[in-house]
Design brief:
CATH architecture of the largest domain: 3-Layer(aba) Sandwich
Number of domains: 3
CATH topology of the largest domain: Aminopeptidase
Shape: globular
Number of helices: 21
CATH class of the largest domain: Alpha Beta
Strand order of the largest sheet: 1-11-13-12-14-16-15
Largest sheet: 7 strands, mixed
Length: about 725
């Protein structure tokens, strides 16, 4: 933090006090809204945030557990006490838990893995009954024995390196480090390369004593900490794997889990770096490349191992109840326009940080809104507050609810506002880019509790401090708008925006709350209070931020969608893609010239084979004019929509509002993305090999990355059509 403040001083940056915002976006007169928000803020309690985190993380509460029912019931109590109409919607969800977990090595090294985290006296809930064991949900059943191969982070490029060493993982078990991608990508790529099993561990060089003091002294992983987690291939589709495209309600038609297209076919197990150490020590073969090394005190080799590894896993594959808490306040003027707010309540174990810290903030909003209602306020639009179950295994609670209510949501949902875990630090927000001005405005009205400046200014300062060039620093300091990110996956917004086209936001704080408790028994109240948000003030800050989004959308005279911002953002994406194609073309030309001139015989890397490399296929001409023309049309149409929004005619504004919030649905494609039709949004999707990470204009971008030029042209047409549809729609407002 000191380093950041020094940098800010050197460049002459001065923070200013918050000034009252007199003209809020979407309001003819802002006085009443500002008064309501001031009252709302006064109801928020950091003490109560801490109390709710302690209560709701006091027991393990995974899907279908006794603790899960306890947490759902406690959330219902809070909503009802605040005056919300509250119910539980139950879905019947497949959720497998382990029956058998065996990992052992025999031969030169004889070792049996512990597969258990150590209870600690400093962590009061680390030795409770009903804690899920360490496992990767949706691993296949399996009993396999083979030599082990180290595959670094298990990404596609790591297998390219293995090819250079002449090492094949076919018929082997692989061991990969957590990090650099979502966990499910590692076994997915391993399976594609013929591996018969996969182990995943957190290396102390990434998350352990090399990063900071290990728990309980510090926040980082000790040698027995394990990250549980789903490995469902959610980039195919999230939700219950046995009910694709339909809700998991009583009597629903199901496919056998063995036939589900988003489940892998090999056994997968997460382990601690304490259990990984003997396995990695046993490796022979080439020394791993320098950038593959980790923090364990020995030389890393790629393998195969001298000894053999036996991995045996079996699961119960049971259907369990998923309990979604749904709380509603009916709108006084527009009851069929819904503002939806959500955070999940299930956890892998106690889940103080993930998800209860975010859930506690949502409950604060509900309490403050209830207090507003007691003062006589009623929202113009209906508020729907949701506490999702079964997010951790694969976004199941939210996805099944969305699939169950799809047609109604596409008709009524104005926006979905999501949060998840929360901690001390900086504002992070991503979502539909028509909301960029709204998020900018709100970020300039919320005060950071640690520094006393707005969260906009603090976020801007952080970006400037982390910038690596003077130009980037200047750009950060000169920014007047918040850089709203694009949505990938990994939380409950996915089904809303990427399947139904409901405009969405995902908001949270963090960056000064690092540690290794994620999905372990140590994600506890004791850990959270010591290392994540000791005063619980950022729980209040999150409630202020998301609460303002809800309140301003609920009562706006003109809904705050600005499609001129979306058009500018998409134009930037297309410029990136044009540049990507140009770079691929230049790379192919240069490398082919080097090959033709036999430059490969001078390769310095001893792993390079001195055989003539294959010439790279030339990159054809790609015609971007259809999408550029569509964007030009959208620019004019978005300007027209902005002009219509500024009209003083109440009837015209009401008509505008009734149509504008469904505009984003025009960006959905009929057939969805190639090889994963559940994802229909033409602008935002998780990447096929990034998992949580977003790919913007995904159909075109991934086709370019895969050099599938026929598909590039096909997807270019689809994106152009969707942008044209949006332009025509906005013209008619």
């Amino acid at each position: 933090m000191k380093k950041k403040l020094i940098i800010l001083t050197l460049v002459g940056f001065a923070f200013t006090n918050l000034k009252a915002q007199s003209n809020l976006l979407g309001f003819k007169s802002s006085d009443k809204e500002i008064k309501n928000e001031k009252f709302f803020d006064a109801q928020l309690s950091a003490t109560r945030v801490g109390e709710n985190i302690k209560l709701l993380s006091s027991v393990p509460h995974h899907v279908g557990s006794v603790g899960g029912k306890f947490v759902a019931d406690e959330i219902v109590k809070v909503f009802k006490a605040a005056g919300w109409d509250t119910k539980i919607e139950t879905y019947q969800l497949m959720f497998p838990t382990p029956i058998t977990r065996t990992l052992e090595m025999s031969g030169v090294t004889n070792f049996k893995a512990k597969l258990k985290e150590t209870p600690l006296k400093e962590d009061a809930t680390s030795n409770q009954a009903d804690q899920l064991p360490t496992y990767n949900c949706w691993s296949a059943d399996g009993d396999v024995t083979a030599n082990l191969v180290f595959v670094n982070y298990g990404l596609p490029e790591d297998y390219e390196t293995l090819d250079k060493y002449g090492i094949d993982v076919k018929g082997k078990i692989v061991i990969a480090k957590y990090g650099r991608s979502w966990r499910g990508i590692k076994p997915k790529v391993a399976q594609e390369h013929g591996a018969i099993g996969c182990l995943i561990y957190s290396d102390p060089g990434d998350d352990g004593y090399a990063a900071g003091d290990a728990y309980p002294i510090g926040a980082f992983k000790n040698d027995q900490t394990v990250q549980r987690g789903s490995i469902m291939d959610m980039v195919i589709y999230p939700g219950d794997p046995t009910t694709p495209n339909g809700a998991s309600i009583e009597g629903a038609s199901r496919v056998d889990h063995n036939d589900a297209k988003n489940l892998l076919k090999i056994p997968v197990l997460p382990i601690s770096y304490g259990d990984a150490s003997p396995l990695l020590k046993d490796m022979e073969g080439p020394v791993a490349p320098r950038n593959w090394g980790g923090g364990l005190p020995f030389t890393y080799h790629i393998g195969p191992s001298k000894s053999t590894v036996h991995l045996k896993l079996a699961f119960d594959w049971k259907i369990r109840p998923g309990l979604n808490v749904i709380a509603t306040i009916k709108g006084s003027e527009f009851p069929d326009q819904w503002i939806i707010r959500g955070n999940h309540h299930d956890a892998w174990v106690n889940g103080a940080a993930d998800p209860i810290s975010g859930m506690a903030s949502e409950l604060e909003e509900a309490i403050a809104i209830g207090a507003l209602m007691k003062q006589g306020w009623k929202p113009k639009r209906t508020l729907v507050y949701c506490a999702w179950d079964a997010e951790e295994p694969g976004l199941m609670g939210s996805t099944e609810w969305v699939e169950n209510h799809a047609s109604e949501l596409q008709s009524k949902a104005v926006a979905y506002i999501n949060s998840d875990g929360n901690g001390r630090g900086f504002l992070g927000a991503e979502g539909s880019h028509a909301f960029k001005p709204l998020i900018t405005e709100i970020s300039k009205s919320v005060i950071d509790p640690q520094t006393g400046v707005t969260v906009f200014e603090r976020s801007k300062a952080a970006r400037a401090a982390e910038a690596t060039t003077i130009a980037e620093k200047k750009e950060a300091f000169n920014a007047t708008s918040y850089p709203l990110g694009a949505m990938g996956s990994g939380s409950d917004y996915s089904s809303f925006i990427q399947h139904l086209g409901v405009p969405s936001l995902n908001i949270g704080y963090g960056g000064e709350d690092g540690g290794g408790e994620y999905h372990s028994i140590y994600d506890s109240y004791d850990m959270y209070k010591r290392f994540k948000d000791p005063s619980f003030q950022y729980g209040v800050t999150l409630a202020q931020t998301t609460g303002r989004v809800v309140l301003r959308l609920a009562d706006a005279d003109a809904l705050q969608f600005d499609f001129t911002e979306l058009q500018k953002t998409v134009k930037g994406y297309i410029s990136e893609l044009i540049n990507n194609v140009d770079q691929l073309r230049e790379k192919a030309n240069v490398e082919n010239e080097l090959i033709n001139n036999k430059a490969y015989i001078y390769a310095a890397d001893p792993t390079e084979k001195l055989t003539t490399p294959k010439l790279l296929s030339p990159v054809p001409y790609i015609d971007f004019s259809p999408v550029l023309n569509a964007l030009s049309h959208l620019e004019k149409a978005a300007e027209h929509a902005e002009a219509e929004k500024k009209t003083a005619d109440p009837n015209k504004i009401a008509s505008f509002n009734a149509k504008i919030y469904t505009a984003e649905q025009q960006l959905l494609t009929t057939n969805g993305l190639p090889r994963r039709p559940w994802f229909k949004h033409s602008l935002y999707a998780p990447g096929f090999y990034t998992g949580y990470g977003v790919k913007t204009v995904p159909g075109v971008r991934e086709a370019i990355e895969q050099k599938n030029w026929l598909e590039v042209n096909e997807q270019m047409k689809e994106v152009s059509k969707s942008i044209e549809r949006l332009a025509v729609y906005l013209e008619q407002l």
